[in-house]
Write a structure and sequence with these properties.
Elements (H helix, E strand, L loop, with lengths): L8 H53 L2 H27 L4 H25 L12 H23 L1
Length: about 160
């Protein structure tokens, strides 16, 4: 924003300030080109450090049982993706079979996520009345019920 005109001394100072402003603008215009490249590199390094920090904390602080449930959940995601890709590529002639398999995968993922939340030691304050054995029994009962319905849906 240009300076306001306040009196007779301002017009004489205006050309000098205009020259200074144009010099500042041109150097500021060249600085973002260099800083944007370095900021992208800095952001990439920062993102990599954040991901590495999260992974290191996960490996050090997460109990082995929770890691096992995480691996099973990753497996269920991979199976669901493979089923969907197969359905897209090969077709979905027995559509009820695809729906049954995919819903079994999604349902098992939800049940496993519930088990993970209930058995995670960090969440013990929220699930004081639920023991690990009770949570696992609920998981098994829910899994049997889910698969019973999925098998009956196939025909």
């Amino acid at each position: 924003m240009p300076p306001k005109h306040r009196g007779p001394s301002t017009p004489a100072a205006a050309p000098a300030s205009a020259h200074a402003a144009s010099h500042t603008t041109s150097s500021a215009a060249s600085t973002p080109a260099r800083s944007s490249t370095s900021s992208k590199q800095l952001n990439a390094n920062t993102a990599q450090e954040i991901v590495q920090g999260v992974w290191d904390k996960y490996v050090q602080k997460t109990p082995q049982r929770v890691k096992l449930l995480d691996c099973f959940m990753a497996f269920l995601v991979a199976v669901g993706v493979l089923q969907f890709v197969y359905c897209v590529i090969a077709g979905n002639f027995p559509f009820n079979a695809f729906l049954s398999g995919f819903s079994a995968t999604v349902g098992q993922f939800v049940l496993t996520a519930s088990l993970r939340i209930q058995t995670n030691p960090e969440n013990k304050a929220e699930f004081e009345s639920t023991s690990n054995e009770r949570a696992f029994a609920d998981f098994i009962f829910g899994s049997l019920l889910l698969h019973f319905f999925c098998v009956n849906f196939i025909n």
